[in-house]
Amino acid sequence: MAEETTYLIRGAAILGGDAEDLLIRDGVIAARGTNLSETGTETGTADGATVIDAEGLVALPGMVDVHTHLREPGREDAETVETGTRAAALGGFTAVHAMANSTPVADTAGVVEQVYSLGRSAGWVDVRPVGAVTVGLAGEQLAELGAMADSRARVRMFSDDGICVHDPVLMRRALEYVKAFDGVVAQHAQEPRLTAGAQMNEGEVSAVLGLTGWPAVAEESIIARDVLLAQHVGSRLHVCHVSTAGSVEIIRWAKSRGINVTAEVTPHHLLLTDDLVRSYDPVYKVNPPLRTNDDVQALRAALADGTIDVVGTDHAPHPSEHKECEWAQAAMGMTGLETALSVVQHAMIETGLMTWADFARVTSTAPAGIGRLTDQGRPLEKGEPANIVLVDPSARWTVDPSAMATMGRNSPFRGMELPGKVVATFFKGHPTVLDGKLNTPYRYPSEAPVAGAAGAN
Amino acid sequence: MKHLLSTEDLSLANAVRILDTAEEMSSVGEREVKKLPALRGRTVVNLFFEDSTRTRISFEAAAKRLSADVINFAAKGSSVSKGESLKDTAQTLSAMGADAVVIRHWASGAPHRLAATDWIDAAVINAGDGTHEHPTQALLDAFTMRRHWTKLSGLPSTGADLRGMRVAIAGDVLHSRVARSNVWLLRTLGADVTLVAPPTLLPIGVERWPCSISYDMDETLEKGVDAVMMLRVQGERMNASFFPSTREYSRRWGFDDNRLRALDTLGLKDTIIMHPGPMNRGLEISAAAADSPRSTVLAQVKNGVSIRMAALYLLLSGDTREPAATLKESN
After folding, report:
1. Using CB atoms within 10 A of its CB, is residue B123 exposed (0-12), middle (13-18) or buried (19+)?
2. With contact defined as beta carbons under 8 Å apart, do A224 and A231 qualify?
3. pLDDT digit string (tens) for A48-62?
4. Is A281 at the interface with chain B, CB within 8 A?
5. Mutate to test the interface with B, among A194, A202, A206, A209 (most CBs of B within 10 A)
6. pLDDT value of position B80
7. Residue B88: closest CA among chain A residues belongs to which residue?
8. Is the Cβ–Cβ distance between B59 and B46 less than 8 Å?
């Protein structure tokens, strides 16, 4: 029942380069060139196509998030797959990896298939469940990684995110085991003993505020251990939300040794510092914590030079009562899906550190590669899947969390003026976002549209 | 001044104003009828999320001497222990017409949250928050030091600062809100502060504080010091490997009888010994030191009431809500 609508995107700067047209038909890019509507193409003319005037807009491959918390199942008061993926589409994403710390934990084939099905019935983006490394995220025994890999959800990324797989033997075994199905272990690097009760970055600001410190060494020591383990067993390691300058140095060293490691940075760590904690406003409470300006600059440089491979949002919505309280009581986490593009444009492109082509690499090509998503992060060429986002780079907007599609109101960018606006998002050739507003979800051809897909058992 | 949340952002003018007002208040405590009508009809809530009988009764005495109505709200055994949030508690107190909330909380920054949100419109006084600040303690310490310091120089206390005074603060700085509040206030008042502590009990980042750091108590005394403030050490720190044993702590960083004698040997006849209480006699301070004429422990308690009267008076009496009168910024 897929729509047969054809779209002609006219005059978009492909990856920020020269303006060209893109013809979208049957879920793929049918043609790319100039003046397609007048000349026609081998695959047919654009007659009857819905024309989208993209003059002044940049066309990019749909963004892929390696790190999203959709909260469903279990915390539907914080976010659902439906609301979270609406936010993702509005933010320019065509695929998100849903982290495993739901309730129940996504540590079985059943749960990952449930999340996968919820994603398909929502239809806003590709939802790729991340499987837990250990049963219940308890760090004691491996979850059935193979069963999750073989499930309909085809899990390739495994993570106990939120909790570090700190037992070195367990981490070694996980890294070894996922080699069997080309998986990757995404580590939340946090030495637990060094961060007991930690509330914020340990340094000058924590000393003044009297908040228990989360030292950089607690992240760096785990990363150092894990890259050596990955080297030893010849496996693939992904480091979640790198937050310190020291971590960057370790990853740079590991890559120079040929170790198969990839790394991620969040938008908030590219822009915000622990100075904001002086307000004691828990909207700035996040794990790993906001660091110093030196760290921010090191992370930006690392993203630009490829030491850090991808931007991952770590989108973490929370109900308001978990943030309207004392700092120590508050939940950790920030929303990010609807601000990621703007923050990265502001921090990386407008600073001259990156081009839009680089942006496509760190938000689409590389994350799709890490998650082994074959139809995402593809070049915008004829015959490729039509996962495309159109961005107005000259737009400026003021962040208003209450106007967002996510249920979370915990955006640390509240009130900031940021550049860049998603004008349209195409997911499998279907516009999930048009004119900057949510359009309609994509409907998979072989499945009934809504009823029952959520699997109530 | 709308709130009293910290000494870090307390200006010299406002600090001196509080100290001077406290001088006036202290005379009330000398009278037969220890009461002023200044806050009649105003409601002061003591909102305590952490047990502290000493601080609570000090604030209570201060508010009552100013004729305010006092409500004591202890979080333990109340709706708070049943899961009520700080927000709901604050809104409840607001609905009951609290004019000032004196808050003691185990979480650093809780008073800032009350002051920064629209949960409650009352004046907020920080009566100690987590390991962050305890501004009225620092003010009463400064008040005590100022009386001593000005008496030595024969000058009037009112209007004076602490320029030139050498103050050592010794002990568990890492977990101490008293130390933090004192460091900022003593800097503002012009004193020279040295922190003396085992390296494990100093926060990372302390090197940026406006004070000197020493790991050696005896060396600090030998260099000369006008006030030594001993901080309370919690016995449970020992289990977390902050120091090997209480005996070793006491020997290296405690104010014991040998160090009390050393003050005499070193010719430091006017040096005072301070402690915010409650004391661990025999751990951070010996009984002889605590009971010596140098000890200001009881004077601190007494001055605490005056300081808290001054704070409540300045925050709640209408005429002083205006911008601070131009006091001599410096001299």
Report:
1. buried
2. no
3. 789 999 999 999 999
4. yes
5. A209
6. 63
7. A325
8. yes
- Chain A hits for B86, Cβ within 8 Å: 325-326, 329
Q: What is the rounded radius of gyration, in angstroms, for the C-alpha atoms of chain A? A: 21
Residue A277 vs residues A292, A326, A415, A428: alpha-carbon distances, Å: 11, 12, 16, 41
Q: How many residues does chain B have?
A: 331
Query: For residue A263, which phi and psi values (nearest 5 degrees)?
Result: -140, 155
Residue-wise pLDDT for B311-323, tens only, equals 999 999 865 444 4
Report the 10 Å Cβ neighbour count for A70.
32
pLDDT in the model for residue A457? 44
| Cα(B185)–Cα(B135) distance, integer angstroms | 8
Strand partners, B170: B196, B230
Closest CA to B58 of B147, B141, B137, B129: B137
Nearest CA in chain A to B183: A208
Percentage above 90 pLDDT, chain A: 93
- Residue A65 CA to residue A298 CA, distance in Å, equals 22
Alpha carbon A138 to its chain's center: 24
Disruptive mutation site among B80, B85, B108, B181 for chain A (greatest number of A CBs within 10 Å): B108
Burial A30-48 (b: 16+ CB within 10 A, else e): bbbeeebeeeebeeebbee
Q: Residue B146: which of B186, B98, B204 has the closest Cα? A: B186
How wide is the angle at C-alpha A12 spanned by C-alphas A9 and A16, nearest 5°? 150
For A407-444, how does the pLDDT look when each residue is reduced to its tens digit (9 = 90+)?
Answer: 999 999 999 999 999 999 999 999 999 999 999 999 99
Find the residue in A nearest to B184 (Cα).
A208
Q: What is the percentage of chain B residues whose pLDDT exceeds 70?
A: 93
pLDDT at A317 > cutoff 60:
yes
CA gap A442, A124 in Å, rounded = 6
Catalytic positions of A, written as ranges: 314
> Measured between alpha carbons, how far is B137 from B276 in angstroms, rounded to an integer?
7
Q: Do B109 and A324 touch (CB under 8 A)?
A: no
B206 contacts A208? CB cut-off 8 A: no
Burial class (CB in 10 A: 0-12, 13-18, 19+), B61: middle
Which residues are CB-contacts of A136 (< 8 A; sequence separation ≥ 6)? Answer: A105, A107
Give percent of chain A with pLDDT exceeding 70: 94
Whether the full predicted model's pTM is greater than 0.90, yes or no, is yes
pLDDT computed for residue B77 by the predictor: 58
- Which residue among A208, A210, A213 sits closest to B130, beta carbon to beta carbon? A210
